[in-house]
């Protein structure tokens, strides 16, 4: 993987206007759904676009989607950027797309709503959360004790408003959310929404601060397994760019790896372009949190053939962003290794892209992974740089 190709859309295919901060997600087949964002005016969008790539890789077609909005109290879907889209398949080629959070930079509003778009009917509805007391049986004894000691943090039924966070599909039945920026700045909390119970649960409330990465917005993130979330970089509370890599094991409810890198970056994207899903983290039945936590990180290394002193290929790719000096357009490859002391190590290294053209540098773009004719591919949509609000689409194969 390392060849860039620009997606040539149909001449009669109207596409989205140039923008940054849009959210996108793959929704099955060779289809990407794009929502919202904002340009440099600033003007915020609340439009939906479907990009369908042709099977022979010759191009693509944009279609503007007009969902049937069925929000309570006859509300409209307000414009926003920095929201997240998460797709949960439901079979027969359809599924549910969850939109969470975001901000309207024009109005100064930050959102905490969770909405659902059904791709079989294109109906957009509110997600009705279960009553607050339905959450209690789901809490572990340790979490319940912590709730009694620190009720203000633990009695939240849902995550506070945020934008520019990281989100991913948890076990194809929920959403894992980390960080972002709220009313008081960058956040470091981790939340899990579970479809079966229609509840949010804070997974990080009982974790010691020294076992967690610092709060951040505009980080890159991707699921490395069914329950493992990888995060890189972002911007911290003091405005400085961050360069660390962290992995959160959703099943063990803890961070299993926090490691510095040489690449400060924000407003970039991360994609897991593995040809097949990585093994889900977890230990044997009855295993403690430590065993489950280690399995999340160790599974990633094993999946890529990691060994002490080796340099195995990896399908974890980071693209673009702002490095503190300039807007960049490079690709970074993440490799998991095992040290001679059997410690898990993460290494980032630049990958030289090939092809007759390469995309212009950008940040605040959107990326997703699609299955290709022979292998998976990363698709990059839009973004902004020093002079342009971009509306182009590129494939990295």
Automatic annotation (TrEMBL):
InterPro entries: Kelch-typ_b-propeller (IPR015915). Keywords: Kelch repeat, Repeat. It holds the Pfam family Kelch_KLHDC2_KLHL20_DRC7. Residues 150-159 have a biased composition (Low complexity). Residues 140-164 are annotated as: Disordered. The keyword Aminoacyl-tRNA synthetase does not apply. This is Uncharacterized protein. It comes from Chlorella vulgaris. The lineage of its organism: Eukaryota, Viridiplantae, Chlorophyta, core chlorophytes, Trebouxiophyceae.
